[in-house]
Amino acid sequence: MRRSLNLLRTFLLSALLTGWGPALFYGCKNHQDNHEHEHAQDHNHSEEEHREGAGADHEADTLTFTPEQVRLMDIAVASVRRLPFSDGIQVTGRLELYPQNRASVSVPLPAIVERIEVIEGDRVRKGMPIAYVSHPSYIELQEEYLRLRARLPYLRSEFRRLEELHKQGFASTREYQRAYADYHEALARLKALTATLLTLNIDTARLNRGEVTRLVPVLAPITGYVHKIRVHIGELVEGGTPIAELAENRKMHADFRIYEKDVWRVREGMRVLFRVAGKPNLYVARIHALSPAFETDVLSVHAHAHLDNSVGDLMPGMYVEGRILLQEDTHLVVPSRAITHVQGKPVVFVAVDTGAVWRFVPVEVRPVAEVLEHTAIYGPLSEGMLVAVSATPLLAGELQKELLVHEH
Questions:
Q1: From its phi and psi, is residue 235 left (phi > 0), alpha (psi between -120 and 50) or beta?
Q2: What is the domain extent for residue 269?
Q3: Is the separation of the CB atoms in 365 and 381 below 8 Å?
């Protein structure tokens, strides 16, 4: 009989989510308990009477509020998630950037800062100008490049002429060697200047057209966020001095510390559930490397874990606490504050936004285990459903009022 009731609840929940009406209810709210239902069925109560009684109860169970009422009551919702959830090892750590996702932006030669194009917190793309700088030495390098480029055709022609004359015996070896050295020296110097100008982000194609660049762009080496600006306009910076720092916060890993007594239980590939202080979200990571060095001062090793979900607004350096899962069992999981009690039964309020109103329907669940303020549950729910995670005692009180009115 209990299996039949659970199936009925699942059906009614699906009906509500597809717009068929308020057909959800939590088990055991009916005025009769399971034994009484079975006794009623043993005496062959009609199916029609059962539907009529259930329909009345469903209407009493559903709480309906306008969007304005939901805002005033400060009701927040969150999704039911299916996550790995099992016994594990409690760990702590920090969020860290991968080395390739952090960059310092600098100039290779001394320069004066003319313009700054970004502020801290801006997101930039690789190759986007961070600032513009200038210096007489940059102009001198361009001048030398143009002079060598203009002189190279003559040196090439002279070298080839003397090469032919030397083959025919009409030019001395000394003259031929001098022409060879002059041409190849100029060619090497031009190649080196070209590489230097490219390092300085000076467009040689534009320079070949005779256009000398005074303001030289300083380009972002990676895509990411501007973490810090270290200079101001008019400042003379030395070569290699950082003028800005960039960080790609969307790609981080968690660095957990595992103590000596638990090291033997941890292996690569294990999942980790973790959270950040002050944030309700639960994140998933997977261990991809264990440090081969044992830190004798704190008797621990480091475990590096890739994040499975989007990091959202997480930032490097944040302190995290988590649990390394020893098994891969998955459960439906809700924030622990989503669970409240009505008539002594643990329930969650499933939220349905119809556009015009919000409907909140209590569904009985069975808590399995709690980790990091999230609880694994059994019940007629599915991943992706919305449940209320704030003001749940208020919703429970409103439901009690509705039930009392319905009983009378």
A1: beta
A2: 86-98+251-328
A3: yes
pLDDT of the residue at 403: 63
210: left (phi over 0), alpha (psi -120 to 50) or beta: left
**133, 191: one domain:** yes
Same domain, 217 and 275: no
**pLDDT per residue as tens digits for the range 182-225:** 999 999 999 999 999 999 999 999 999 989 999 999 999 999 99
SS3 386: strand
Take residue 18 and report the two structure tokens written for it: 């597809």
Which helix (H) or strand (E) segment holds residue 262: the answer is helix 260-263
Same-domain status, 316 and 338: no
Separation between Cα atoms, residue 156 and residue 379, nearest integer Å = 85
**What's the number of domains the chain is made of?**
3
Asked if 240 contacts 108 with a C-beta cutoff of 8 angstroms, the reply is yes
pTM of the model: 0.60
SS3 261: helix
Average pLDDT over residues 134-148: 95
Q: What burial letters (b/e) apply to 189-214, b meaning 16+ CB within 10 Å? A: ebeebbebbeebbbebeebeeeeebe
**Residue 166, both tokens:** 């030397």
Pair 198, 218: CB distance under 8 Å: no
Out of 55-64, 272-281, 290-299, 343-352, the most confident range is: 343-352
User: Could you give the 3-state DSSP secondary structure of residue 338?
Assistant: helix
How far is the C-alpha of 22 from the C-alpha of 61, rounded, in Å? 8
* Average pLDDT score over residue span 20-39: 38
